[in-house]
Design a protein that fits this description.
Elements lengths: L2 E10 L3 E9 L4 E2 L8 H12 L3 E2 L29 H8 L25
Length: 117
Amino acid sequence: MKPRFTILYSFAKNEHVRVKTRIKEFEEIESVVSVWTTADWLEREVYDMFGVRYANHPNLKRILLPEDWVGYPLRKDYNIRLQDVEWVRKHLGIDSGQKYYVGEARHEDTDYITPSG
């Protein structure tokens, strides 16, 4: 399997150091929290949004989204339209205005303007 993710760390201390590595989709990368404690929340955010897992991370769990969220919303293959709109409304307080899931008939209680001709 080809590497899918590139992990890039950039730290400033009168010098610029960048460490970049490529990993496969389900491959873990070693956490750097033991070296840089400030990487804790960054690694959790990358896990939460992209699904990248960090081996030996002291507390690898979602940091922005609820634990029962399904999927990783910043991945290109994530389809936000498949997210349960009622769950989003209830847990996040966001009303998208969408009434149905993708694939359901949306025309039943909607007035459409059709072209005349």
